[in-house]
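Structure (tokenized):
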């Protein structure tokens, strides 16, 4: 039987769009350093860079 990690013990980040905390997910294991948004909705609604 595999050991379980409590959700409180998982690493967290703050979403760049909604500024809410979100926890590590298994599907993000290989790219955790690159993850910036908590969901696809936040990724689609990310702030646009200013146009000059």
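Design, position by position:
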């Amino acid at each position: 039987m595999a050991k379980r990690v409590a959700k409180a013990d998982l690493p967290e980040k703050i979403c760049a769009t909604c500024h809410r905390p979100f926890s590590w997910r298994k599907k993000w294991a290989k790219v955790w350093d690159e993850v910036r948004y908590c969901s696809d909705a936040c990724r689609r609604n990310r702030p646009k860079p200013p146009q000059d």
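Reviewer-requested clarification: The first strand starts at residue 12 and ends at 14. Strands lie at 12-14, 21-23.
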